[in-house]
Recover the amino acids of this structure.
């Protein structure tokens, strides 16, 4: 979830550059996204939100290990720099990110943000909460497509559905899965996972 931080000087918001964002520290443990040059604090989610993230992460991690892919998956630890409109000063921190292991190793000695010099993530996953629904379904859909991320999952415990978005010529085609539907993922074609498994707590 995100809550905007007001950065005002005589009613105008001061922009934060990507370079400034990489070194930003406000003295707390709060994580921030950068949205079109504005810092946006990420607040603590509900237990359901956290449980849904963890279940999704565990399923993806198990499939990576089972298939011995040279990938890693992390939850809430990796930023993704995205184009937004005509600007480049946007960094999202997805709930779950799957990326090439080599690119992850390249981040060990620098800030954990997938910049444009690295390959786009293979997959990003966002779990919906009431305060982020429009952002996850609309803004991030556009940003992740512009970043050429091939697959984007929107996991929605509010509607008990999982939307799989596949990048086609710079825009996402979407398929929705409910209940006992097996989730069809091009990244994980043998994955045995259903919305019911994710949402039954």
């Amino acid at each position: 979830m995100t809550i905007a931080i007001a950065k005002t000087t005589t009613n105008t918001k001061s922009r934060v550059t990507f370079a400034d964002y990489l070194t930003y520290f406000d003295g707390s443990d709060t994580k921030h996204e950068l949205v079109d040059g504005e810092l946006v604090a990420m607040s603590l989610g509900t237990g359901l939100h956290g449980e849904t993230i963890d279940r999704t992460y565990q399923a993806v991690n198990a499939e990576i290990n089972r298939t011995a892919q040279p990938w890693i998956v992390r939850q809430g630890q990796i930023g993704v720099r995205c184009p937004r409109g005509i600007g480049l000063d946007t960094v999202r921190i997805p709930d779950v990110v799957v990326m090439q292991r080599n690119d992850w190793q390249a981040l060990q000695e620098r800030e954990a943000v997938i910049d444009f010099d690295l390959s786009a993530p293979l997959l990003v996953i966002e779990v919906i909460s009431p305060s982020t629904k429009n952002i996850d379904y609309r803004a991030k859909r556009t940003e992740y497509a512009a970043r050429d991320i091939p697959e984007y999952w929107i996991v929605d415990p509010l509607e008990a559905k999982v939307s799989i978005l596949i990048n086609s010529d710079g825009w996402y085609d979407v398929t929705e899965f409910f209940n006992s539907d097996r989730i069809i993922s091009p990244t994980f074609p043998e994955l045995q996972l259903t919305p019911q498994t994710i949402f039954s707590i």
Notes: The longest strand covers residues 161-168. The first helix runs from residue 18 to 23.
